[in-house]
From TrEMBL:
It is found in: Cell membrane; Periplasm. The keyword Disulfide bond applies. This is Periplasmic oligopeptide-binding protein OppA. It comes from Bacillus toyonensis. Pfam families: SBP_bac_5. Keywords: Disulfide bond, Lipoprotein, Palmitate, Peptide transport, Periplasm, Protein transport, Signal, Transport. One of its GO terms (molecular function) is peptide transmembrane transporter activity. The lineage of its organism: Bacteria, Bacillati, Bacillota, Bacilli, Bacillales. One of its GO terms (cellular component) is outer membrane-bounded periplasmic space.
Length: 546
């Protein structure tokens, strides 16, 4: 998901005993008392990098909102350890012989107001997501369902979507073609159910506050103080509440990494991510942990900009960035330089070989070549002096990333001036989505386990084609992957490999790095599941254990 996006930050929550930040860190269990409470009660104290951007499942596009939704709502399936789908609102399902019809059998479960979760809740939510009036940026994920694309194109009404509530506990889905990752997709936030009666009763207030939402997940959202803090509380109506051990999770929005580290040290936070500034300091700490990630960060280049319409200019920008230096000096967290879009150790072909290993490096760092390309671009553009604006978020890492890129580009590309535009995370995302930027730091974590979750972003009409790239050959290749090649595993995989090569022949983006993650976690915290798709945490199985 858009996240999908670089780890973003929204507001500063300081702490009175620290020199950084301002205001007041609100936590009933502070200082040494926090450790006592955490050890004796099932309470987690965590930070959030930003305000919850939205709680409307049809409109969420960012990682931070998605993480909240993953814990307070539940789809047909959930994602557990190793990203494996586990039954959620559905206790089982059947698939037709041609793999185009899924029948889900719902368990007896309830919304947080005590009303039953029914098949109609899924019908309503999915129809709403594809309805063009909703303007869901993730509507395209439904396009493999019968009539979804025509509905989104205003050719059919939403009630013609290929979904049906046979009865309260039976939900049928008819696909246009086989989709090998469909079960995994049902755990994605846009596929979560909505109680239609409650939704309509709330009107324009729906999902704006914690009390204008119904929950069917392991937790409920409460005490939502915008731009400051929020809480998860164990949902007493959840069907699997006996599995859920955590009673409460306190989230405070913390902007400065040094503030976050000090809060961990003073026993006010139980888990935090680390940036490069702190990795060496804590590598030998008993609380230090690290893990690989399948999210990628890259530099977007908006082709609505005259300079960036020039392929030589884009190639020059791409080839001048020293990814290795960037990763080693700014990150130091297990992240690795990347020279493609689809990450390593994410998807394998029919031969069992990794996608990234098969396609290899599709770009390079070559300062001399970059300078020649830049000279060519300037000549074609008729200008020796060029200025570009670099959009970033205002978090610590993003600011440093912006400075690094500015230094690299201005040093190696003569006549180029880069002006950095740091914005609060929410505003940065908004500007990216509106295409109101020139070059911008962005990223993507997969929504499901297939390379198309990365590649499809750059088709002409995809809502996440924020660079306004258009290539008929690429569009046709992706369309074949989704249609005529859907049942041929080898041909489909080969087409995906070829599609990625087209993107890099055109230098659509400049890939930066594949994420790694270093973090500190108190020894008494157990069972938090990291979901690679969108890089989110699932707290259903978490617990405090002495």
């Amino acid at each position: 998901m858009k996240k999908k996006f670089v780890p973003g930050i929204a507001s500063v929550v300081g702490v009175s005993i620290l020199l950084t930040g301002c205001g007041s860190y609100k936590n009933e269990a502070s200082g040494a008392n926090a450790k006592d409470e955490a050890s004796s009660k099932q309470v987690l104290n965590l930070s959030s990098p930003s305000e919850i951007r939205t709680m409307d499942t049809a409109r969420a596009t960012d990682t931070d909102s998605g993480q909240v939704m993953r814990n307070v709502f539940e789809g047909l399936y959930n994602l557990g350890e190793g990203n494996k789908p586990v039954p959620g609102a559905a206790k089982s399902h059947e698939v037709s012989g041609d793999k185009t019809k899924y029948t889900f059998h719902l368990r007896d479960s309830k919304w947080s107001n005590g009303t039953p979760v029914t098949a109609k809740n899924f019908v309503f939510a999915w129809q709403r997501a594809v309805d063009p009036a909703t303007a869901s940026e993730y509507a395209f994920l439904f396009f493999d369902i019968k009539n979804a694309k025509q509905i989104n194109n205003k050719e059919l009404p939403a009630n013609q979507l290929g979904v049906k509530a046979v009865d309260d506990h039976t939900f049928e889905v008819e696909l246009e073609r086989p989709v090998p990752y469909f079960i995994s997709l049902t755990a994605f936030p846009t596929f979560l159910p909505i109680n239609e009666e409650f939704f309509k009763a709330q009107g324009d207030k729906y999902a704006l506050e914690d009390n204008t939402i119904l929950y069917n997940g392991a937790f409920t959202l409460s005490d939502w103080k915008h731009e400051q803090s929020f809480k998860f509380k164990k949902n007493p109506t959840y069907w699997d509440k006996d599995t859920v051990k955590i009673e409460e999770i306190n989230f405070n929005i913390v902007k400065e990494k040094s503030t976050e580290v000090n809060l961990f040290e003073s026993k006010q936070l139980d888990r935090i991510k680390l940036t490069s500034d702190f990795v060496d300091k804590y590598k030998k700490d008993a609380n230090f942990k690290e893990r690989p990630n399948v999210g990628v960060q890259f530099l977007r280049m908006n082709q609505q900009n005259k300079v960036l319409q020039n392929v030589s200019a884009r190639q020059a920008i791409d080839q001048t960035i020293d990814r290795k230096s960037f990763v080693n000096t700014l990150l130091n967290d297990g992240s690795t330089p990347t020279f493609g879009l689809v990450p390593k150790n994410f998807a394998k072909g029919p031969d069992g070989k990794d996608f990234r290993a098969t396609n290899g490096d599709l770009t390079k760092v070559d300062t001399k070549s970059a300078q020649e390309l830049w000279k060519k671009a300037k000549k074609e553009l008729g200008s020796e002096k060029i200025t570009l604006e670099l959009l970033t978020s205002d978090g610590d890492l993003e600011k440093k990333t912006g400075e690094f890129l500015k230094g690299q580009l201005e040093k190696n590309l003569e006549g180029l001036t880069v002006n950095i535009k740091p914005q609060p995370r929410k505003q940065q995302v908004s500007l990216l989505l509106k295409g109101d930027y020139e070059i911008g730091i962005d990223g993507w974590s997969p929504d499901f386990a297939d390379p198309i979750t990365f590649l499809e972003l750059f088709t002409t009409n995809n809502p996440y084609n924020l660079d306004h790239y258009s290539n008929k050959e690429f569009d046709e290749a992706i369309e074949k992957v989704k249609t005529t090649l859907a049942g041929d595993e080898k041909a489909r995989f080969d087409a995906l490999l070829a599609s990625e090569k087209i993107l890099f022949k055109d230098s659509v983006i400049a890939p930066l790095y594949q994420k790694g993650e270093s973090y500190l976690e108190k020894s008494y915290v157990k069972g938090i599941v990291q979901v690679d798709f969108a890089g989110q945490l699932n707290f259903k199985w978490a617990k405090i254990e002495k």
